[in-house]
Each structure stands twice: as structure tokens, then as C-alpha cells.
Design goal:
The protein is mainly alpha-helical and about 325 residues long. The chain is built from 13 helices and 5 strands. It binds tryptophan (TRP).
Length: about 325
């Protein structure tokens, strides 16, 4: 871990099932960039509990998500990978930042507004303060770059704002992070298979809407066969023909080819073939990932060791920032 490299940090909530959208939109890019950056990849379990979780499932899912990051190619010798709750400083800095964040700015968060509509029965303070915890994740490690999807742009803006607010109120302490929005070309935006006007979501209640990284080949083929397209016949990339555009995007991302090459490839071919071939390249990508995943999960010593080392390194780095913060705001240290 070279000090001169810039720090790149990102995380995914352990809810639902990691899907091909997460892979192509995020994890594949983390893997691609991890040699050039000092990478920090977190399973953000403290974020996940802002929505009620089943304890036994959450426990399993955290390990499973970490194993899937690794199986996708996150290299623990290059990057730090850990579970958020193993590093107490996340919650500690979040509390401190809560005293800097304004009620007004948090009430304006689009995701918060969407979430309180969805979770009427459990509009808890954590849901409200969620973006502050995310700022804590980012600022603790003096991150330079935060690869996120479009939907997290507002949260990242808040992280920048809180960093600046603290730096101005006390003295320069936090690096002000840059968003690294995954665009179509770098990180594909993958859409739901049954309702391609929506983004593919790992927490969708209908599993036919997503391809989970752990779906077996038969399931993958079945899901693609059922994917919604349209009543036209020609395979062309047209933003407005969401279903076909989505399949072409999947094909081009999975084969690392351009959209126009993908279009070319499918010229004169029907939708059935398109679906079959997208399924084939998906299976080709996922089978080795699943194989590695099974190894990691069947004998957990290696996985546990990686997560233990990751947490240790993260705790060390996070503590440095937190101590500075505590000192600057006037908390008595040294005990
Ligand atoms: N809020 C992010 C999401 O829902 C997940 C997240 C939590 C995150 N902490 C982060 C992403 C820090 C990037 C950096 O997608």
C-alpha cells in the first residue's frame, strides 16, 4: 500500500443479493482501478440496519458479500476490505459529524424522501442520519475518490460540504473527496429485466428483475429468456427501447466491447439469440466467480483472516483521523 497512491473508497450495503448491476456498475471497476489506487472497500452493515433486517440473515450476508467482493477480484494484498462495524470509528466520527450537519440539508436528501415513503412503519433517526454515516466512512480515510452511482451524488456532495465545514470551523483536517460517477462507459447502468425503465436493484422483491452473482446457469438463462424487450425486431441501441438497450449494454460490458460492436455482432439476429448470447456471456463471467466464492465460503479461515487484517489496518488509519478530530473539537485525550 503505497502512500503516494490516491485513496479510493467505496461500499455496498449488505441487503438483498449482489447482482450483475453491482458487478458491472461498481465492483468490476474497483477491481480494474485497485492497482492504481489505494483501495478501501467496505461492507457497510451499519447502513443496512437503518432498515429492519433479520439478524441471522444479516450475519450471513455480511460474510457472503465480503466473499463476493473477493471472488470478483478484490485483492486483499492490494486493497483493504472489511466490515464497517468492525471499525468503531465509523460510528464515532458519524456522531461528531451529526453535530455539524443541519436538519434542513438532511431533510432535502432525495434518497431519504424515497425511503420514508417505502418504510412508513419505521422512519427512524438512522435513516435520517444515514448520509452523515456515509460521510464518516469517506472522511475517516482521507479518501480522494469515491466511485458511486448517480443516485449517491447528493450524499457525496454532503460529505464534501461536511469536510469543508469542519475544516473551516477548526483547521484543515479532512481531505475533500471527489465523486467519481460511474458513467455508461466505465460502469454500466444496468436496468431491471422485467421493468427496464427502472435500475436493476439487488433488493428488488421480484428476483426475475435481477441476475444475482450467485444465480446458477439455468436460472440465469431462464431470467434472460423472460426479460422484457419490445415488439420491434431489429437489434439496435436506442435509449428509448430500454429492454433491448439493456441487453446490449450487458453484452458489451461483459465482453468489454463497444456498444456499436455489440450492435454489429447482433445484426440480422433475433431477440431469442440476443437473450441466449447475453445469458452465455453472463454465465461465462459468473461461473469462475462462483467457484472462487464457494472455496472462500466452504472453509472460512482464509476469509476471516482477510477480514481481520482488513479491519485492523482500517482501525489504525481511522483512529489517526478520529484522534485529530477529537483533539481539535476540544475533547480531552491521552487517557
Ligand atoms: N450509501 C451507499 C449506497 O447506498 C453505500 C455507501 C455507504 C457508500 N458508505 C459509503 C458508498 C461510502 C461509497 C462510499 O450505495
Amino acid at each position: 500500500m503505497n502512500d503516494k497512491k490516491k485513496t479510493m473508497l467505496s461500499g455496498i450495503q449488505p441487503s438483498g443479493h449482489l447482482c450483475i448491476g453491482n458487478y458491472l456498475g461498481a465492483i468490476k471497476n474497483w477491481v480494474r482501478l485497485q492497482n492504481d489506487y489505494d483501495g478501501i472497500f467496505i461492507v457497510v452493515d451499519l447502513h443496512a440496519i437503518t432498515v429492519r433486517q433479520k439478524p441471522a440473515e444479516l450475519r450471513k450476508r455480511c460474510l457472503s458479500f465480503a466473499a463476493q467482493y473477493l471472488a470478483c477480484g478484490i485483492d486483499p494484498n492490494e486493497s483493504i476490505i472489511f466490515i464497517q462495524s468492525h471499525v468503531p470509528a465509523h460510528a464515532e466520527l458519524a456522531w461528531t459529524l451529526n453535530t455539524l450537519a443541519h436538519m434542513g440539508e438532511l431533510s432535502r436528501m432525495t434518497q431519504y424522501k424515497d425511503k420514508i415513503k417505502k418504510h412508513q412503519a419505521n422512519i427512524n433517526v438512522g435513516l435520517f442520519a444515514y448520509p452523515v454515516l456515509m460521510a464518516s466512512d469517506i472522511l475517516l480515510y482521507q479518501s480522494d475518490l469515491v466511485p458511486v452511482g448517480e443516485d449517491q451524488k447528493q450524499h457525496l456532495e454532503l460529505s464534501r460540504e461536511l469536510a469543508e465545514r469542519f475544516n473551516n470551523a477548526y483547521s484543515p483536517t479532512f481531505k475533500v473527496p471527489e465523486a467519481f460517477i460511474m458513467k455508461q462507459s466505465a460502469g454500466a447502468r444496468i436496468r431491471s429485466l422485467q421493468d427496464p425503465t427502472k435500475k436493476m436493484s439487488k433488493s428488488d422483491e421480484n428476483p426475475n428483475n435481477y441476475i444475482a452473482l450467485l444465480d446458477d446457469p439455468d436460472t440465469i438463462l431462464k431470467k434472460f429468456k423472460r426479460a422484457v424487450t419490445d415488439s420491434e425486431t431489429e437489434i439496435k441501441y436506442d435509449e428509448n427501447r430500454h429492454g433491448v438497450a439493456n441487453l446490449l449494454t450487458l453484452y458489451s460490458s461483459l465482453t468489454d466491447s463497444s456498444l456499436s460492436d455489440a450492435e454489429q455482432h447482433f445484426q440480422g439476429i433475433g431477440y431469442a439469440q440476443l437473450k441466449k448470447q447475453v445469458a452465455d456471456v453472463t454465465i461465462e463471467t459468473l461461473v469462475p466467480i462462483q467457484k472462487r466464492y464457494d472455496e472462500l465460503m466452504s472453509e472460512k479461515t482464509e476469509l476471516e483472516k482477510i477480514l481481520k487484517n482488513g479491519a485492523e489496518e482500517a482501525r489504525y488509519r481511522a483512529r489517526k483521523t478520529l484522534s485529530k478530530v477529537y483533539r481539535k473539537i476540544g475533547l480531552v485525550g491521552g487517557f
